[in-house]
UniProtKB/TrEMBL annotation:
Residues 201-448 form the Glutamate/phenylalanine/leucine/valine/L-tryptophan dehydrogenase C-terminal domain. NAD(+) binds at residues 208, 239. The active site is at residue 125. One of its GO terms (molecular function) is nucleotide binding. This is Glutamate dehydrogenase. It comes from Idiomarina seosinensis. It catalyses: L-glutamate + NADP(+) + H2O = 2-oxoglutarate + NH4(+) + NADPH + H(+). Substrate binds at residues 89, 110, 113, 164, 382. Catalyzes the reversible oxidative deamination of glutamate to alpha-ketoglutarate and ammonia. Homohexamer. The record marks 165 as: Important for catalysis. PROSITE patterns: GLFV_DEHYDROGENASE (PS00074). Belongs to the Glu/Leu/Phe/Val dehydrogenases family. GO terms for biological process: glutamate biosynthetic process.
């Protein structure tokens, strides 16, 4: 469609050097063509042009002092992308690769993901090019305090509610919340992913990983299969990967891989989850330490793996769960997975597959759950945390888990039904994109040109 092509070209000129952002936009715009043709009002009212432009972008300096007394400076970001459905909602990423384009891609994805949950939340994302690796606890605290010293002016429980993402977990949320409270003198639900000792929701920590596995359950059920007994390939070893592995074990599957940015573990007996939690969650360590306990596991370091892409995807497995980062699963990896008989790919990470890999999955007819649908359990449970904070109530673990399961089932059904409605019954990329887009676009129409 010429109009879509023109919009993307214009975006490349007005927002130069933001390749991940263009990739995310192309993915959505190309799959919503059928509904744009069906409802010319979207085009007439400038919905697409407005959607690809964030409502507000905040960039700021984050100065902090390291343990040697040196002043360090990082770049901080918050992109408030779209508030048609509710307050801006989305995580904060602390990683050296963070830049405006990466935050915009994540914020753009978040709009449609949040819409798919069916809950009243808009889309936003933020972060900093800060590298938490190798930093002391005191350095992390000073950085988080400085970051919040600027961010607090822009957020609020009914305005914009950040949470965690790569490099931001319960510890960082705690330091940021402490600083927020000190600055505004209020205890409110301005952040999610809080410790459940002081306002956090049960299941938020587990929610993205568990949610991805619940989504996989729905996908397999449609082919009269179950998770039980399946060999699973998982990448990453952070929050999402750990709790995907935990739920896979609970459902009788066997996860045999995990990874970090330095290398990959393959363990034929199944990943030792307690050990993984100890290394990564408790000690913030490196994955090669796994071998100190399990000499019979295989470790392939990033340097010893000559190919582009990710070593995890070269093993044999029934279901693949990319749970590390964007574009970690390349065209070649996708080819290798298909040749090795992998039948399902369910994305725990945001945009982990390259566009070529996604095309291959769709053409081949394997079951493919795109990230914006499959990993929406995290943000959905964040909204459940907001609801508990607003009502000053606290729900039990089982209550929240039950709601999470039902939300994931609804996301799957909505994506599947929409794919069928537009005559591509097994294309959940198209189904999820149109289902999410329709909710946001209709709300924007009703709210006028703003
Ligand atoms: N946390 C959440 O609730 C949600 C997260 N997501 C997405 O899930 C993914 C993982 O997030 P999360 O688990 O929270 O983050 P964590 O920081 O807890 O873990 C990230 C994991 O990915 C690895 N990783 C990061 N960057 C790279 C890279 N460039 N190459 C290889 N491995 C890498 C990290 O390795 P290392 O330790 O070496 O850095 C680590 O194992 C991200 O795409 C995130 O956006 C999506 C929805 C919600
Ligand atoms: O919990 C949240 O608000 C956001 C989670 C997140 O960053 C994501 O869904 O990518």
């Amino acid at each position: 469609m010429a109009f879509i092509k023109d919009t993307i070209e214009k975006l490349k000129q007005t927002s130069p050097a933001q390749s991940e952002f263009y990739q995310a936009v192309e993915d959505v715009l190309e799959s919503i063509e059928p509904i744009i043709e069906e409802r010319p009002k979207y085009q007439k009212q400038g919905i697409i042009e407005r959607l690809v432009e964030p409502e507000r972008q905040i960039m700021f300096r984050v100065p902090w002092v390291d343990d040697e007394g040196n002043v360090q400076v990082n770049k901080g970001y918050r992109v408030e992308f779209n508030s048609a459905l509710g307050p801006y909602k989305g995580g904060l990423r602390f990683h050296p690769s963070v830049n405006a384009g990466i935050i915009k891609f994540l914020g753009f994805e978040q709009i449609f993901k949040n819409a798919l949950t069916g809950l009243p939340i808009g889309g936003g994302k933020g972060g900093a090019n800060f590298d938490p690796k190798g930093k002391s606890d005191a350095e992390i605290m000073r950085f988080c305090q400085s970051f919040m010293t600027e961010l607090h002016r822009h957020i609020g429980p009914n305005t914009d509610v950040p949470a965690g993402d790569i490099g931001v977990g319960t510890r960082e949320i705690g330091y940021m919340f402490g600083q927020y409270k000190r600055l505004v003198n209020r205890f409110d639900g301005v952040l999610t992913g809080k410790s459940h000792l002081w306002g956090g929701s049960y299941v938020r920590k587990q929610a993205t990983g568990y949610g991805a596995v619940y989504f996989a359950q729905c996908l397999l059920e449609d082919s009269n299969e179950t998770i039980e007994g399946k060999r699973c390939l998982v990448s990453g070893s952070g929050n999402v990967a750990i709790y995907a592995i935990e739920k896979l074990y609970e459902l009788g599957a066997k996860p045999v891989t995990c990874s970090d940015s330095s290398g990959t573990i393959y363990h034929e007996q199944g990943i030792d989850l307690d050990l993984l939690k100890r290394i990564k969650e408790e000690n913030h360590g490196r994955l090669h330490e796994y071998l100190e306990t399990h000499e019979n596991a295989q470790y392939t370091s990033r340097e010893d793996y000559p190919d582009d892409g990710h070593c995890v995807w070269r093993y044999k497995g029934d279901i693949a769960f990319p749970c590390a980062t964007q574009n970690e699963l390349t065209d070649k990896d996708a080819q290798a997975l298909l040749e090795n008989g992998c039948r399902y790919i369910v994305e725990g990470a945001n945009m982990p597959s390259t566009q070529g890999a996604v095309d291959l999955f769709i053409e081949s007819g394997v079951g493919y759950g795109p990230g914006k649908a499959a990993n929406a359990g995290g943000v959905a449970t964040s909204q459940l945390e907001m609801a508990q904070n607003a009502s000053m109530l606290r729900w039990s673990f089982d209550e929240v888990d039950c709601k999470l399961q039902s939300i994931m089932r609804n996301i799957y059904r909505d994506s599947k039904r929409t794919a069928e409605e537009f005559n591509h019954p097994s294309n959940l990329v198209l189904g999820a994109n149109i289902a999410g887009f329709r909710k946001v676009a209709d709300a924007m129409l009703e709210q006028g040109v703003v």
